[in-house]
Amino acid sequence: MLGYPLGWMIAAILFFLLIFSVAMSTVVIHGSARRVGDNDNAELRIKGLLGLINYHWQLPVIRIKGFEMELKRESSAENIGGKQNDMSIMNLNAEKMMESLEKAQLLLKHTDDLLGWVRTLLGHVRLVEWQWRTAVGTGDAVWTAMLTGMVWSVKTTAIGVLSQLVRLQGQPAVSVNPNFSETQFTTDGQFTAKIRFGYAIYAGIQLMRRLKKVNGTEKGILGWQKILLKA
Predict the structure, then answer these.
(1) Domain residues for 52?
(2) Is residue 165 part of a domain?
(3) How many CA atoms within 13 Å lie on the side-chain side of 98?
């Protein structure tokens, strides 16, 4: 069939249709977080290309030890290259937080208009579902009412900020339930966002083009790796 000009034309059309279908396919990002008392849980799932991309990240344990916070992280990825599992425990304290801030500043210097790139990327993200439920109580009616108002203010501000960054599709399901009889704080939320696979690849290429050399650090992805992996 490919020996004829018409056969090559059909093959080329099918190839470009395949590339177009892949580029227009959707990457689905689903996240959830929950805090009940001293128990915390966070989870993130990324799926795309009919399941060929399947990444799962979970933060099942957070323990407070004095002035330190212990985080246990689990992640798994099922991609074309096979399945990978990873688990790590990290102690977060004031020193670690300062190191993270220093790394963030280096990344900003190492990348041309990184914040602009992030804003442009988020502008192509569609937030199709967002639920955020909170229950608060202090045991006192007046203080509970005041705390309820503060939580509502935080949530409405968050909605306003999100509406400026991403494309909100659908009405966010947000609630604050006061508990006037006892002390309580529980909150849980989940979201589902979508982005075109083709634009995600394009954004990655644009990011690589923005990487630059600063203060003797290697240019490009090697510089990023040195900054992120710096002890």
Answers:
(1) 26-91
(2) no
(3) 3
